[in-house]
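Task: sequence design from structure.
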């Protein structure tokens, strides 16, 4: 005996001799429960803007990782001074003779006025340098924010008071001015002022200075979230069962603060990219001959480049705008995927 029955979701199945027919199986699969992570991933994939932004961001990271390989295939590097190697390509002032900065099939993005570096490979390695520093700063600030923010929120008492006062004190610092003023000081701790500063020292100093004033916003968010979570029933149950504070934090609290960590991370990284570029632009970050996004902007602002090769600013400027916008849109999409009630 067969009879149709309606099931939740609008589908219709057939019961044959008391057993569900083959049409019931696909409908049953639709009714299976999904974890919050799976629901977040489904919502994110439906956001076309977020998916496109993710591809753009992934492209920039891939370009940074593969910069040496691309440079090898291209046949050039960002350190060759073509003003010395190929003086026939430049005039007496060091400006490329060909229009648009010497853009040609041989030099895809042209040549830099002055030293004559290849702009294409310099941009590739500049992206690599900026992203490497910004990723390191983001990882350091996220780990510090998690450690101090969750500890303050869960432990409370004197620990919360002390950590909160430290956060308030550091938030009072003017970040940009502190970065500019402290970079030479930090560098001088490793290298004598009379010696040339190695690139790795500048990289370490950039990471340390940005980390010092970069973790507080995430720590405050995680502190507030942890304060609310520690009053929940499952935390009280874990305490009654004899679980240690470390186990409660690692097994109960941390899984519930993944959302603010991911969302804030996607907003923090592009901010560190622009901060690092700004320091290099002002001459207290990465300097020549090491390629860097901000160092390229600094070169583009010189009188020689501004008057003779305005196209030099185009490539680093457009690439940074695309990256920052894509990463910010990705952050919005991640936030919306975790919180379906948010309307954009």
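Answer:
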């Amino acid at each position: 005996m067969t009879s149709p029955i309606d099931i939740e979701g609008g589908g219709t199945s057939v019961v044959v001799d008391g057993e569900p027919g083959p049409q019931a199986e696909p409908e049953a699969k639709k009714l299976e429960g999904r974890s919050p992570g799976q629901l977040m991933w489904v919502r994110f994939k439906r956001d076309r803007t977020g998916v496109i932004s993710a591809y753009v961001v992934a492209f920039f990271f891939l370009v940074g990782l593969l910069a040496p390989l691309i440079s090898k295939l291209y046949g050039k590097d960002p350190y060759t001074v073509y003003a010395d190697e190929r003086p026939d390509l430049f005039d007496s002032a060091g400006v490329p003779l060909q229009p648009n900065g010497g853009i040609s099939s041989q030099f895809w993005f042209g040549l830099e006025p002055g030293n004559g570096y290849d702009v294409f490979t310099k941009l590739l390695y500049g992206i690599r340098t900026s992203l490497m520093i910004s990723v390191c700063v983001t990882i350091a600030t996220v780990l510090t924010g998690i450690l101090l923010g969750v500890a303050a929120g869960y432990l409370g008492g004197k620990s919360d008071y002390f950590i909160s006062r430290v956060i308030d004190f550091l938030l009072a610092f003017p970040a940009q001015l502190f970065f500019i003023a402290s970079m030479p000081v930090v560098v001088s701790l490793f290298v004598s002022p009379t010696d040339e500063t190695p690139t790795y020292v500048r990289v370490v100093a950039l990471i340390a200075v940005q980390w010092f004033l970069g973790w507080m916003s995430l720590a405050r968010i995680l502190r507030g979230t942890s304060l609310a979570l520690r009053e929940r029933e499952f935390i009280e149950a874990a305490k009654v069962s004899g679980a240690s504070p470390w186990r409660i934090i690692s097994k109960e609290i941390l899984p519930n603060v993944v959302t603010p960590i991911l969302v804030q991370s996607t907003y923090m990284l592009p901010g560190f990219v622009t901060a690092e570029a700004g320091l290099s632009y002002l001459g207290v970050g990465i300097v020549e001959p090491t390629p860097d996004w901000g160092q390229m902007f600094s070169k583009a602002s010189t009188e020689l480049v501004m008057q003779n090769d305005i196209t030099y600013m185009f490539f680093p400027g457009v690439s940074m705008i695309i990256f920052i916008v894509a990463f910010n849109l990705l952050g919005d999409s991640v936030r919306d995927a975790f919180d379906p009630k948010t309307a954009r």
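The chain has a mean pLDDT of 81.
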